[in-house]
Amino acid sequence: MLTKRIVPCLDIKNGRTVKGINFVDLRDAGDPVELADAYSKAGADELVFLDITATEEKRRTLHDLVLKVAERINIPFTVGGGISSIEDVDDLLHCGADKVSINSSAVKNPDLINQLSAKFGNQCIVVAIDAKQINGQWKVHLVGGKVPTDIDLFEWAKEVQERGAGEILFTSMDHDGTKNGFANEALSRLSEELTIPIIASGGAGTMQHFVDTFKEGKADAALAASVFHFGELEIKDLKEELRKSDIPVRL
Q1: I need a labelling partner for 215 at 20 to 30 A (CA). Which of 13, 63, 94, 129 fits?
Q2: For 183-188, which contacts have Cβ atoms below 8 Å and span 24 or more sequence positions?
Q3: What integer is the mean pLDDT of 98-116?
């Protein structure tokens, strides 16, 4: 059985790690290079780095910062934010990223998924989907959650898989930063309807939330930020708890 992955996430704004609730009210969470180094040493399985204002500010990802992080860690490293071309991905991979995450650019130009998958291999391409419930329906949002669309989460996820994405990073905007648990019902449906791995994001607050998202949500990986950044959960302790709950993890 494949091991479940624990993935700290660095949301970057103005060169600093930040964290908010429901995608707003951001507060400083520390230096991204130091945090990345600490997580790599603490037993994280992967690291995600999201330049959260790159798309809104219409600029490319912070390459110098990506390079500094990559030099300090020895775990798989996914980078997202402002990626819209083969050249962008090529640059980030040369800076030390192992995978890239695309979001708004994939919705605006779905062929980009096909192009990147064909060029770099689907194992390299993560499509991030930010969604929230509108009148009981999960709807995709763009530009760091600021722009709502009428696109259905599950239909878009299926298209993303068909176009060659190797993984989906699903963030529930309703759960983000609330520490009330992951969107397990939606995650379970995604897992049942798709064959590629699903990373759960949004809502981690306790060890039990991770247990629940792996068991009930059937997630392949669980991403979290504030519970790690502010020392509320230690990765080693979390993995030991998961192991006690018969969830396979790499210790």
Answers
A1: 129
A2: 183/217, 184/212, 184/213, 184/216, 184/217, 185/217, 186/131, 186/138, 186/153, 187/213, 187/217, 187/218, 187/219, 188/216, 188/217, 188/218
A3: 97
Position 111 in a domain:
yes
CB of 249 within 8 A of CB of 33? no
Q: Which of 45, 51, 88, 130 is catalytic?
A: 130
In a domain, 136, yes or no: yes
Domain interval for residue 128: 5-244
174 tagged catalytic:
no
Does some domain include residue 250? Answer: no
DSSP-based three-state secondary structure for 87: helix
Distance, CA of 210 to CA of 224 (rounded, Å) = 10
> What pLDDT is attached to residue 25?
55
Structure tokens at 144: 């760091």
- Evaluate whether residue 251 is within a structural domain: no
Catalytic residue among 11, 51, 176, 212: 11
Tokens at 235, concatenated: 């990765």
Tokens of 42: 């603490």
CATH number for position 17 = 3.20.20.70
Q: Is there a catalytic annotation at residue 11?
A: yes
Q: Is 127 helix (H, G, I), strand (E, B) or coil?
A: strand
By 3-state DSSP, what share of the chain in percent is helix, strand and coil, each rounded to 5? 35, 30, 35
**Total domain count, the chain:** 1
Q: What is the pLDDT of residues 22-40, one digit of tens each?
A: 555 566 667 889 999 999 9
**Buried b or exposed e, range 175-213, using 16+ CB within 10 angstroms:** bbbebebbbbebbbbbbeebebbbbbbbbbbbbebbbbb
